[in-house]
Amino acid sequence: MNKDLVIYNTLSGDKEKFTPINDGYVGMYVCGPTVYSDVHLGNCRTFVSFDVIYRYLKYIGYRVRYVRNITDVGHLEGDADTGAEDKISKKARLEQVEPMEVVQRYTIGFHDMMRIFNTEPPSIEPRATGHIIEQIEMVQSIIDNGYAYEKNGSVYFDTLKFAEDKKVYGKLSGRILEDLMVETRDLNKQDEKNNPADFAIWIKADESHIMRWNSPWSIGFPGWHLECSAMSTKYLGKTFDIHGGGNDLKFPHHENEIAQNWGACNCQPANIWMHANMLLMNGKKMSKSIDPETGVSNSITPEELFTGDNPNITKGFSPMAIRFFMLQSHYRSTLDLTDEALIAAEKGYRRLMEAQKVLQNFTHPGGGSAADLDSEINQLIDNVHKDMSNDFNTPMAMARLFELVPKVNGLKEEHLSFVDLTSETLDRLKQTFSDYIYTIFGLMDESESAAAGGGALDGVMNLVIDIRKSARENKDWGTSDKIRDTLKELEIQLKDGKDRTTWSKN
Ligand code: AMP
Ligand code: ZN
After folding, report:
1. Which of 98, 244, 353, 497 could form a Cys-Cys staple with 30, CB 3.0–4.6 A?
2. pLDDT above 50 for 451
3. Residue nearest to ligand 1 atom 6, measured at CA
4. Is residue 250 lining ligand 1, measured as CB closer than 6 Å?
5. Residue 460, ligand 1, Cβ within 6 A
6. Would the CATH topology of 6-276 be identical to that of 284-448?
7. For the whole model, what pTM was predicted?
């Protein structure tokens, strides 16, 4: 087992040597999506980042319990903690369906997209609505410990008292409590709080609120931050190894999660907090929300990226070219989506897969004793591992593999430099390429899967068929016609059967 892993911990602001609580085991919790609309590419970037982290932890020998939740209640509009509508309920109201129909539809869509990007499913995927009892119990413990109070059926976390007692509030996000206290926010129920920095952990439902549960305080629903505290504790214990999520969740979500866990258990929840940086487009955070200035959202859907149907790109890109593009930047750096960068990534992905084929098809003729070349290759392989164990530095590890690509391609052109390698080193090189490309980076060979009529292309086509089906159900003829016409141009035929639609390519 590789004992040299170093991880950047947002809590300490430093890289730290990774030592799990239980030798050989890792508990990791990552905040999952709020399933009120289609997953966007920014969400995908965060989940791909943690997928590579999960894969690498397993690769170096840990048994990992990876918990990633589905948020299906309590996440209010504008990330508010009171006085705003629940994102899921709002969608259900607008579409005149049950909230759980909204949840079901977008959870399936999310899973489809994760499969298309070849991310592994987490070990446990708990839902907030499936853990209301655990959340109520946690609110009660926080009240019992003196860190929360009830007002008119809602329960608020006493941030000031907690900050005074534990001195950790604001440590993760760098916020200063005094600043938070003077911030005046024009929200309903703000006056119920003793202090503007307090936040709701149980919210009394008003008449119009459709998602509601019985509790000792009122018929209501849990605050958004509470679900992650309750579910991480349930599945990973009071203190566990790693908690992750996107950078934008540091405050208030993660800061408040830490406060709640301390409030309930009197101990720190996760030892390491990891934050993946944002996906940008045109230099601005990619987001589904409508920009009030421009009236449009700064976002591109994965489907648009696959088909090329978006003004920001000149052509479509395959899921693996996009995954490769994401791996080319470090998870803590922002990643700016541009047409040129995607085109370069597509070329890089193809070059790497081509080199992989050449390398794996090469059989050693025996012998080989070029000590210089042997040690050069071994050094490069060692460095690939070093880069990954240095806070999961995928762009550096990738760059090392690319240093080997011209040498590998030499095999194809038959300047057989590799015959001089010892067969042990050649085997190690082959193993490293396969391990990194497939097992750790999670790339698939699209040329093979497409030729076999399966894999990624199948996944994408199922997605396109699903989108067309919902467009037709919603009488959105513009979208369904556009899908049909674009597929026709690509010489792909859809055939509508009695209970499902199939496709074929000329
Ligand atoms: P949400 O569905 O909004 O709760 O977000 C799900 C996950 O995606 C969270 O971990 C967010 O931090 C992350 N996320 C949201 N927007 C972006 C973005 N533009 N780039 C990267 N990650 C994002
Ligand atoms: Zn969370």
Report:
1. 244
2. no
3. 33
4. no
5. no
6. no
7. 0.87
Nearest CA to ligand 1 atom 5: 33
pLDDT digits (tens, 9 = 90+) for 130-140: 999 999 999 99
What are the Cα distances from residue 320, in Å, to 18, 106, 334, 442? 30, 22, 20, 9
What's the CA-to-centroid distance between 103 and ligand 1, angstroms? 17
The DSSP H or E segment spanning 174 is none
* CA–centroid distance, residue 43 to ligand 1 (Å): 4
Q: Is the pLDDT of residue 457 over 50?
A: yes
Four-point Cα dihedral 24, 53, 265, 234, nearest 10: -80
Cα of 253 to ligand 2 centre, how many Å? 6
The fold of the 284-448 domain, in CATH, is Isoleucyl-tRNA Synthetase; Domain 1 (1.10.730)
- The domain defined by 6-276 folds into Rossmann fold (3.40.50)
Ligand 1 neighbourhood includes 244 CB (under 6 angstroms): no
How far, in Å, is the centroid of ligand 1 from the Cα of 391? 21
Calculate the CA 416 to chain-centre distance. 42
Answer for the pair 13, 400: CB distance below 8 angstroms, yes or no: no
Q: Are 87 and 76 in contact (CB under 8 A)?
A: yes
- Locate the domains of the chain by residue range: 6-276, 284-448, 453-505
